[in-house]
Structure formats: structure tokens, C-alpha cells
Amino acid sequence: MKERAINKALSRRRARIDEAKREAENKLAAALLIPEISIAHSQYVDKKFNSILNGKNTEGVTAAHKAYLSALAKHGISESDFEYTPLCSNCKDTGSVNGKACDCVWSEYIDCLKEQCNILVKAPFTFADCDSALIIDETQRSSVEKLYKYMEAYSDKLPDVNYKNIVLSGSVGTGKTCLASAVARAAVERGKSCKFMSAYEFNSEMLACHTSPISERTERLHDLLTADLLVIDDLGTEPILKNVTIEYLLLTLEERLNAGLCTIITTNLDEGRIMSRYFERIYSRLSDKRHSRFFNLNGKDLRLA
What's the start-to-end Cα distance of the chain, in Å? Predict the structure, then answer.
């Protein structure tokens, strides 16, 4: 996803620069349609060309240039109107400043990365939307606020975090999806790639992969296995498909953990129900204290607060 976003960002940037240069060229072409300007411009160019051939500047070049400028001025035009002005005053459209990517390139990349990840649609919530003020119980509010701070710091550091797997467990409306969305949005804002999908979407995509030709499976799994962050929302709501659901979830967790990438899972299931539904192999990977953290979000439905 990041490579596609980079290529798209550079392509867009080049297209805008080329368009700006064409606009400058079109302004000159329009001015040269005015006979007085066209004649003065032709005489100036001829004098300048002959001067270059002779290897010296002449008074004729200076005079011709003044005449050309005078003709432009009569029509309210300046020679600078035909000059290409860099779109970025910081890097002058070179794309870098002091050997580093300019902010204009970075900003374009982030916009394209958001599109590639479809993050504005898939993850509409930010940390500003994670409002603990709705929680009446002070003990619960304090616990949730600590979790929000932890996950905000987690988004700042991923994928360089101690716990690659995060499970957010809790009943309906306790803020699991909102929090996972906020982490995903923050990560993409930092230039990290993210795949955000419901458990049902994950299941459907894995079924499509399982039934596709073997030659196509690597490409189908690429984004899911290489994104800096994968979010699977509402695990437990999807049907269990034989040879697909558990097998591909296990594959995904193992491959991502081996690659040092982060996975966040939200679910209404507690640890016991995860064990009974997905069996020991999945449960052991989500409960392994070396690589995973399990958070319980308890309390009332915040949507009804």
C-alpha cells in the first residue's frame, strides 16, 4: 500500500508541476498572438541568438529587450507572467530540502495513503471522538482514560512496540471500534499503512483467496500480511467456514507476528469464548503475554448515554 501511495503521490505532483509549466507557456503563446508583441519578441530573440553566436552581448540586444518589454507593458503584460513559478516555495519543486523529503511531498503521500487504505471510510473515528466524559462511573472512566492514553502512545510508535497483538474485548457500545479506528487513523497520519476490515470482510476475503488459483493467492494476501497495522473489527460475528476462518486467521496472525507487524482485534467475546470458538491455536497467539495484550472494556453502552 505504501509503495502504491508513493507512486501515486509522485505522479500527482509531477502532473501539477507540468500543468503549471503549461500554463506559463500558454500565456506566452497568447501574448504572441498580438502583432506588436510578436514582432518585438521576434526581434529580441534574433538579436539574442546572434549575440550568442558572436560570443558577446551587444547594445542591440539590450535595446530589443527594452522594446519587447515596452510592447508587453502596453497590453498590461509583464515578462514575469511567462515564468514558471514553483508550486512549493520551500523546495522549489525539487521535492527535497537538506536531503530530506519536503513537506509538500510528505503531505501528498499521506493523502494518497489515506486513499489506498480507504481509512476515512473504514476508520471514521479519531482520538478526539474517544470521549471518556460519557462514562459516569469514576473507576471505569479512569481505567478507560488510561487505555486511551496507552493506545495513543501505541499508535505513535507502531510497529516498533512491545506487543504486536492487541485484543479489545467488551460488550456492545463500550468504544472498542472507536478506539481501534483512532489508532488506525493516527497511524496513517504518520505514514504507516493500515488494513481495516470487519471480521465478516476478513472471512469473505479469505474465502475468495482460498478458492482462487494458487498463483493469485500471494497477491490477494499481500496488503493484509504486509500492512504496518491490521485491524479486524468484531471478531466472532463472522460465520465459521471450514478450512477458511480459523486456518487463515491463524496464518495471518503468525505471518504478521513473524514480520514484526501489529494487529488489533475488537470482539464481544471474552477470553474463554475465544478459546471455545477458535480453539487453542488462535487463543494461544492472542493471549501470549510476550507478544499480546488483552484489554477488557466493561460498562454500559456509550451510544445510549
Answer: 38
Residue type at 42 in one-letter notation: S
Task: Please list, in sequence order, all residues whose beta carbon lies within 8 angstroms of the beta carbon of residue 100, skipping any fewer than 6 positions away.
Answer: none
Q: Are 302 and 134 in contact (CB under 8 A)?
A: yes
pLDDT digits (tens, 9 = 90+) for 78-135: 998 888 889 999 999 999 999 899 999 999 999 999 999 999 999 999 998 887 766 6
Q: Which three three-digit cell numbers place residue 205?
A: 476475503
Q: Which residues sit opposite 101 in a β-bridge?
A: 96
pLDDT of residue 275: 95
Tell me phi and psi for residue 70, to 5 degrees.
-65, -40
The reported pTM is: 0.84
Total residue length of the chain: 305
Q: Are 45 and 55 in contact (CB under 8 A)?
A: no
- Among the listed residues 23, 19, 20, 22, the one whose alpha carbon sits nearest the alpha carbon of residue 86: 20
How many Cα atoms within 13 Å fall on the side-chain side of residue 192?
22
The rounded percent of the chain whose pLDDT value lies above 90 is 80
3-state secondary structure at position 26 = helix
Collapsing DSSP states into helix, strand and coil, what is residue 99? coil
Q: Are 77 and 38 in contact (CB under 8 A)?
A: no
CATH of domain 118-304: 3.40.50.300
Whole-number pLDDT of residue 302: 57
Residue type present at position 109: Y
Burial tier of 193 (Cβ tally within 10 Å: 0-12, 13-18, 19+):
buried
d(CA 155, CA 159): 8
Q: How far apart are CA 226 and CA 230, in angstroms?
A: 9
Count other C-beta atoms under 10 Å from residue 98's C-beta.
Answer: 6
- C-beta separation of 195 from 226 below 8 A: no
